[in-house]
Specification:
The chain is mainly alpha-helical and 116 residues long. The chain has six helices and no strands. It binds heme C.
């Protein structure tokens, strides 16, 4: 009986880990409506209103901000884009200390909705 209970507990925790992994690496858990507000406040200045990389500051950056609606960005996995948002790259700032993980998921969901 005890063995069975342990087994149930064990499978339940495996399930949670899988859920957590999915939540941390996919856009499915993000809310694009919330992401849009975050995008307007934090990203638009560089990436532009429609994500084309033509924001006010963006035009003067080298390398320029990625066109988030372009085929190159679209072809990248959620995990890769989340990593750039969290860690930054070149002049792209890191957001992990400024935005929480849910915010970053919401941003990813919004970015994905731009390219549809
Ligand atoms: C100061 C300007 C600036 C701001 C603000 C900024 N970015 Fe960027 N972003 C960049 C630049 C420049 C790159 C390209 C970096 C490179 O080519 O290595 C980039 C790249 C990216 C990429 C990688 C795309 C790819 O194809 O790999 C993503 C995703 C991204 N930004 C999302 C965001 C989000 C979301 C925000 C707001 C939270 C944001 N950026 C704010 C400048 C900015």
């Amino acid at each position: 009986m005890k063995g069975l209970r342990l087994l149930v507990l064990f499978s339940a925790s495996c399930f949670c880990m899988a859920e957590l992994e999915a939540a941390l690496t996919s856009a499915a858990s993000g809310d694009p409506t919330k992401g849009k507000v975050l995008y307007a406040n934090n990203c638009l200045i560089c990436h532009g209103e429609h994500g084309k990389g033509d924001g006010l500051i963006g035009e003067s950056l080298h390398p320029p901000p990625t066109n988030l609606t372009g085929s190159q960005a679209r072809a990248k996995s959620d995990k890769d884009l989340l990593t750039v948002i969290r860690e930054g790259r070149a002049t792209m700032p890191a957001w992990k200390n400024r935005l929480n993980d849910q915010d970053i998921q919401n941003l990813l969901a919004y970015i994905r909705s731009l390219s549809e």
